[in-house]
Amino acid sequence: LPTILSLVESSMQEVGVRGNQYAVVGYGGPGELLEPITYTAASSVFTDHDTVLQALGRLSTTGSGGDIYEAITFAARLTTRAAVAKVVVAITCDRITDRSFYGDAIVMLKEGIIRLHYLNPAQLMLKNKKNVRTIYGFDKNSVYTAKSMKNRAGDSTLRSQLKVPKDYLSTLATESGGSVFSQAVLSRSFR
């Protein structure tokens, strides 16, 4: 996670977006950590890139599930600076196949003008297994491979060939204007 956050921060700075603030919301942990909770750093919910790494370091992958929709709703309700774009990055340990939250979630994201990105635990691949490429991620119109990541433009010709994961968070992310990336590929690629 720290490496991915550093990539996000450097990408934002390259296009002139500075002063970014980050917050960490965890959920699904043991005991009282089952419910969504903010992880503070330097006694603040929102902090800069360097400081938020302290909060990320306290996250754990052990837990009993939790409700991703509650966590997204909790994150969406955090008070942000005026006129600042809201972006939520959801990370799960398991595939999410529960569709009961989808309708409410898409309305909340679109009304709140929130872009959801999802780090999916599934391996992403193309329908044609003969065309072996490492798929980093995708959005509504494009697929991101090693080649397309160099120029930050996805490959729209591969989008129709993508075997789209059958989970509702991936759909929610792309419909909100966000993207889906493979946890496995990202963790392997940026070690």
Spatial sequence of strands, sheet with the most strands: 3-4-9-6-7
Low-pLDDT stretches are none
- Content of β-strand: 15-25%
State the helical fraction.
25-40%
* Total DSSP E strands: 9
Rounded mean pLDDT is: 85
For the termini, the CA-CA separation is 11 Å
Record keyword descriptors for this entry:
alpha/beta, two-stranded antiparallel ribbon, five-stranded mixed sheet
Structure, described:
The structure is a single chain. The chain has seven helices and nine strands; from the N terminus they run αββααβαββββαβαβα. With 191 residues, it is of the alpha/beta class. The mean pLDDT is 85.
Short description:
This protein is of the alpha/beta class and 191 residues long.
How would you summarize the topology of this molecule?
Layout: H1 2-14, E1 24-26, E2 37-39, H2 49-56, H3 68-76, E3 86-91, H4 102-111, E4 114-120, E5 125-126, E6 135-139, E7 143-145, H5 146-149, E8 162-163, H6 168-175, E9 179-182, H7 183-189
Parallel strand pairs: 3-4, 4-9
Antiparallel strand pairs: 1-2, 5-8, 6-7, 6-9
Helix pairs in contact: 3-4
